[in-house]
């Protein structure tokens, strides 16, 4: 079985970010398609309750959130690098822009126009995920403003390309390209008229085509049953935090070895409980025992997740 199992679905924008990174690295991987909405009975036993997509699985180690997934890909497969100009810190930090304000602009533009065609099941699921109403009328009203925001984000990308470079960091693609690309891919794929908001920007369409040409690496399909079986047959990493990651904050380090709960602080706040077995400035690692799968280690980013002793 392919070592890299990506729990995803093809229309997921954050999965597209990871797929582009897999393409940049030319990696072989398996797509484990998960439902777009809950329930996800073959995912939550692996994650301990985390429901968002994508999730990367390598044996009995499970990596949640695209931010940590790309960090793990770089640690496991350093060449070719996702940071071709040595910009690891700043390129990683760009996800705070692309995954938040840039992404929200794309979401608003899409759903202002297609929201009324979305099924009730999806709407209820996303309301539960976000803890807020799926306000189609509000998105329609906000469209003129959010359209300007999407164009402004795209213009920042075009500005970086203004000197004629092929990719955002120079002549080689990297994480910065994947981060910027997936939002424009999302908007253009699910509301094609949105392309008119940005495709006239100098250099942007050619750059977009170059990123598309990278592809997604060597993909195959794997069943959810295969993924669960891979977890059963594997043992979690003995050293779950890669060498070289910045040390954890003292308060986090003090909790290693204790029962803890972790949860996202933005949306999808379902807590995961287990024993904290690793921590750095970039990740938290919990070990869980599942009655069917055995020992599983769940890795989450430190940024954007809360950590507390288990009740």
From TrEMBL:
This protein's UniProt keywords: Transferase
Positions in coiled-coil regions: none
Alphabetized CDD domains for the sequence: GST_C_family (cd00299), GST_N_family (cd00570)
A molecular function (GO) term: transferase activity
InterPro entries to which the protein is assigned, alphabetical: Glutathione-S-Trfase_C_sf (IPR036282), Glutathione_S-Trfase_N (IPR004045), Thioredoxin-like_sf (IPR036249)
Domain GST N-terminal: 2-81
UniProt key word Ribonucleoprotein: no
One Pfam entry name: GST_N_3
KW Transferase (keyword) present: yes
Name of the molecule in the record: Glutathione S-transferase family protein
Source organism: Novosphingobium olei
């Amino acid at each position: 079985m392919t070592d890299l199992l990506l729990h995803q679905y093809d229309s997921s924008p954050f999965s597209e970010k990871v797929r582009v990174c897999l393409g940049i690295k030319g990696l072989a991987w398996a797509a484990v398609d998960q439902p777009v909405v809950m329930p996800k009975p073959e995912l939550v036993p692996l994650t301990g309750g985390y429901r968002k997509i994508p999730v990367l699985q390598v044996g009995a180690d499970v990596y949640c959130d695209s931010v940590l997934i790309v960090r793990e890909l770089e640690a496991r497969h350093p060449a070719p690098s996702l940071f071709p100009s040595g910009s690891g810190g700043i390129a990683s930090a760009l996800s705070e822009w692309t995954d938040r304000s840039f992404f929200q602009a794309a979401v608003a533009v899409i759903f202002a126009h297609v929201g009324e065609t979305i099924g009730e099941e999806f709407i209820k699921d996303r309301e539960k995920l976000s803890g807020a109403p799926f306000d189609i009328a509000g998105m329609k009203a906000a469209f003129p403003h959010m359209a300007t925001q999407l164009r402004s984000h795209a213009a920042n990308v075009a500005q970086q390309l203004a000197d004629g470079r092929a990719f955002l960091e120079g002549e080689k693609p990297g994480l910065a390209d994947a981060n910027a690309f997936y939002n424009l891919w999302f908007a253009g794929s699910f509301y094609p008229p949105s392309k008119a908001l940005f495709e006239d920007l100098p250099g942007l369409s050619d750059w977009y085509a170059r990123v598309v040409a990278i592809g997604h690496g060597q993909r195959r399909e794997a069943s959810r049953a295969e993924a669960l079986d891979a977890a059963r047959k594997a043992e979690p990493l003995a050293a779950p935090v890669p060498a070289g990651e910045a040390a954890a904050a003292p308060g986090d380090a003090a909790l290693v070895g204790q029962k803890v709960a972790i949860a996202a602080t933005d949306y999808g706040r379902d807590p995961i409980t287990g024993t904290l077995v690793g921590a750095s400035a970039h990740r938290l690692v919990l070990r869980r025992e599942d009655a069917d799968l055995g020992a599983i280690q769940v890795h989450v980013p430190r940024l954007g997740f809360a950590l507390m002793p288990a009740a």
